[in-house]
Amino acid sequence: MRKHELVWNKDRHGVGIALIDDQHRQIIERVNQIAGAVATAVKKETLKEMLEDMLLFVCEHFAVEERLMAEHGYPDMESHIQEHLKMYQQLNNLVKTVLRTTGRDKAALVSAYLSDWAERHILLADKELGGFLAAQGLS
Ligand SMILES: [Fe+2]
Ligand SMILES: [Fe+2]
Question: From ligand 1's centre to the CA of 139, what distance in Å?
Answer without folding.
Answer: 16
